[in-house]
Amino acid sequence: MNSIERLYPGITIVRLRRNYRCTPQIIAAGATVLENAGQTDDSVAAAADGAAIRVLTATDARDEGAAIATVLREVAGRQRPWRSCAVLARTVAQLTEVSHTLAAAGVPTRLQGRTSRNSALGSALSEANAHRNQADLVTWIERITADPDADPVRARVAEAADRFVAQGTGMTFRTWVELHSPFDDLETVETDDAVDLLTFHAAKGREWPTVIIAGAETGLVPHSSASTAAQRDEEARLLYVACTRARERLIITWAAHRNGRPTKPSPLITDIDTAAEGASADSAVAPTVARLPRAAPDPVYVALVAWRRNAARAAQVEPATICSDESLRAVAQVRPTTIEAVAALTDLGPLAAARVAPRLLAALNRAV
Question: Where do the H-state alpha helices sit in 194-269?
Fold first, then answer.
């Protein structure tokens, strides 16, 4: 007897098993989440057979964000508007990180109900605030201002940061921005067409044709704060809710490393793809679920990483001290031909560029 029957003896409970929103594949995926937590769901899909459930493994949070941007462009870049898609995650912190990546990729987002052109602003401010050493900040400013194709929002942040450095206030750039509000004209701009970014909790009662669930890994799903059996059961129900917000397409992502630590896929998504195979509204169908194939690594980038590893070994330093992964990716993509171009494209300062760029260009020439 459940709580309603105890409170209202003699009440008649009618269970509505038929789900008119989700495809059979999505219903099967949600049921698998609950089964993995020792719970059950007897929902039956009334909708027609649908698209494959995709499970994507990323190397880290950055790779995950890039994959999400790619999937959104695949879906919304055809006939669908951005608002037909949502990215759901367990925590706001995850969504904030995703919003920065999507902004850099030109994908408009609505974070927890707030639409902003300026997930781009937040991303640029995060870049600037990451340079706590003023010399590093100056190098970042020079790199942005020297780039004729720099994003206008990043250019505005670099311009403000230059004024901050010139004033020599002694405070941090973050504090200076809070005091002077130099970006008030760039604040939230409402638009109807944006990808919704919501936590599992905030997504209750909502639905979208396409849903991407990000960060489906240990420590996040179920969340590490769930210490009792009842709390873990609730975490499973939250993931079930997230899955069944999708009407037509469900994509699930997890990162093998997050915050510098290795992770594993959530036990709640075990067999979630294979469990949906053969699911249909009224009869068995051929398997339709497949993992999203991993893109082949850029051979030029791989060659540059190998060069950096060998150079670091010879110098007996960590590879990241020579140049960052971001710099290598930029060089592999743009393929500069001069030291000046390398300096403008990467996070190397003028002195470091003069020392590292000739060897980096030589490695690039060998790779291409």
Answer: 229-243
The residue extents of the domains of the chain are 18-114+191-276, 119-186, 299-367
18-114+191-276, CATH topology level: Rossmann fold (3.40.50)
Q: What is the pLDDT of residue 239?
A: 95
Whole-prediction pTM value? 0.56
Q: Is 233 exposed, middle or buried (0-12, 13-18, 19+ CB in 10 A)?
A: middle
Residue 109's closest CA among 131, 128, 87, 93?
A: 87
Report how far apart, in Å, the C-alpha atoms of 165 and of each of 129, 138, 141, 278, 319 are: 13, 8, 10, 62, 30
Six-digit token string for 283: 């009869």
Kindly report, residue by residue over 183-222, the tens digit of the pLDDT.
Answer: 765 544 445 688 999 999 889 889 999 999 999 999 999 9
Residue 75 CA from chain centroid, whole number? 16
Q: 299-367 has which fold?
A: DNA polymerase; domain 1 (1.10.150)
Give the CA radius of gyration of the chain: 24
Provide the strand spans (E) within 59-95: 85-89
CA distance 10 to 13: 9
